[in-house]
């Protein structure tokens, strides 16, 4: 009896889990490509912030790149 209940619960949870999987049609992808959906809304500003961060964090390598701490090239 207990195994049947667990199997039924697992089946119901699996149905809910796989109900969220769907194929996105090409005309539906435009909503995902909106600028508001990106992590960095302004790429230029994000580039400046990344440059400043990597210049200040030279001792630990910045954000994946090494270099001097003064920001000079």
Automatic annotation (TrEMBL):
<dbReference type="Pfam" id="PF14086">
    <property type="entry name" value="DUF4266"/>
</dbReference>
<protein>
    <submittedName>
        <fullName>DUF4266 domain-containing protein</fullName>
    </submittedName>
</protein>
<feature type="signal peptide">
    <location>
        <begin position="1"/>
        <end position="22"/>
    </location>
</feature>
<dbReference type="InterPro" id="IPR025362">
    <property type="entry name" value="DUF4266"/>
</dbReference>
<keyword id="KW-0732">Signal</keyword>
<feature type="domain" description="DUF4266">
    <location>
        <begin position="24"/>
        <end position="73"/>
    </location>
</feature>
């Amino acid at each position: 009896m207990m195994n049947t209940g667990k199997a039924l619960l697992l089946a119901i949870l699996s149905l809910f889990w796989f109900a969220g999987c769907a194929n996105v049609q090409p005309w539906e992808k435009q909503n995902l490509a909106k600028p508001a959906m990106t992590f960095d809304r302004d790429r230029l500003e994000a580039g400046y912030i990344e440059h400043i961060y990597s210049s200040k964090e030279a001792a630990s390598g910045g954000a994946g790149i090494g270099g001097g701490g003064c920001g000079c090239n």
